[in-house]
Design brief:
The protein has helices spanning about 15-25, 45-55, 70-75, 75-95, 135-155, 180-195, 215-230, 245-255, 280-285, 295-300, 305-309, and strands at about 5-10, 30-35, 60, 100-105, 160-165, 165-170, 200-205, 210, 210-215, 235, 245, 260-265, 275. By secondary structure, it is an alpha/beta fold. The longest helix has 21 residues, at about 75-95. It is globular.
């Protein structure tokens, strides 16, 4: 991409999209096209068609999505499937129609089978059953990958896909009905400390293993891929490091200085037992994450987490 290239970041107010915008601005890309969901409903085919015909972006980062944690994914199953399919179909198709030079679609590590071998290699996609609680969201993201793959095969479009691991950072959601594990634990433990509570209840057994990546690292990887990679296959983005939910909760407890007890509730769903990305493909290209988990969590707190919750 040239510094003057016209770049559309779909979902620019979300955690991922806003990080991509910050990264582009810091690298001198100033010709950005941005629309809020109120200004442009990406689920609406006519609105998306009109937007692309008018603006004619040269490059597209497709970071817009309906996202949530286990509870939201399992409760609003039809919404997660419909909304994400419509967003992907409309943006990817209009990028083809309007001759976008390159598009990067962002998926999720939940696309992999629940019991796939670890670490998760890109070729394990569609090799087994998905995790039940987030199956609709995963199916939508798999469809996005396949759209990019097949628009490339049929029409020669330079559309690529990247699959981030679990993310955290600025502009995350701290609504306990929709949040992922890190913001949920930050909020619960912060609230408990402020209220002088003796314990915090944590969903699940605490045994599942998870990998986390700061969203600023993800944005850096996205720009790297947009400038360096063109291929049929999607690329994993992660840290290549994992820890248990229990150890994550203990780490957050320590950082926040909460002296109460953590009570794990095994009656609540654990989700996938283990989810570690194989990031060797991206490392071979020359990219690695820079922000370790403890530093990243402390940065979240320094940058006004208390105001967001």
């Amino acid at each position: 991409m040239e510094k003057s290239s016209k770049i559309y970041v779909a979902g620019h107010r979300g955690m991922v999209g806003s990080a991509i915008v910050r990264k582009l601005n810091s690298e001198g890309y100033t010709n950005l096209v941005l629309r809020t969901s109120a200004e442009l409903d990406l689920r609406n085919q006519n609105q998306v068609e009109s937007f692309f015909a008018t603006e004619k972006p040269e490059y597209v980062f497709l970071a817009a999505a309906k996202v949530g944690g286990i509870m939201a994914n399992n409760t609003y199953r039809a919404d997660f499937l419909y909304d994400n399919l419509m967003i992907e179909i409309n943006v990817i198709h209009q990028s083809y129609v309007n001759k976008v030079k390159k598009l990067l679609f962002l998926g999720s590590s939940c696309i992999y089978p629940k019991l796939a071998p670890q670490p998760l290699k890109e070729e394990y996609l569609l090799s087994g059953y998905l995790e039940e609680t987030n199956e609709p969201y995963a199916i939508a993201k798999i469809a996005g990958i396949k759209l990019c793959e097949n628009y490339r095969r049929q029409f020669g479009c330079d559309f690529i896909s990247a699959m981030p691991t679990n993310l955290y950072g600025p502009n995350d959601s701290y609504d306990l009905n929709n949040s992922h594990v890190i913001p949920a634990l930050l909020k619960k433990i912060s609230d408990a400390k402020n209220a002088n509570l003796s314990y915090v209840e944590v969903w699940g057994s605490g045994n599942p293993l998870r990998e986390f990546l700061h969203v600023e690292d993800l944005a850096d990887a996205c720009l790297f891929l947009m400038n360096k990679y063109s291929g049929d296959n999607f690329v994993n983005i992660g840290s290549g490091q994992e820890l248990s939910i229990k150890n994550l909760a203990l780490t957050i407890k320590s950082i926040l200085g909460f002296e109460g007890e953590l009570k794990f509730d095994p009656a609540k769903p654990d989700g996938t037992p283990r989810k570690l990305m194989d990031v060797s493909k991206l490392k071979e290209m020359g990219w690695e994450h820079r922000i370790d988990l403890v530093s990243g969590l402390k940065a979240v707190l320094r940058n006004g987490f208390e105001k967001e919750v």
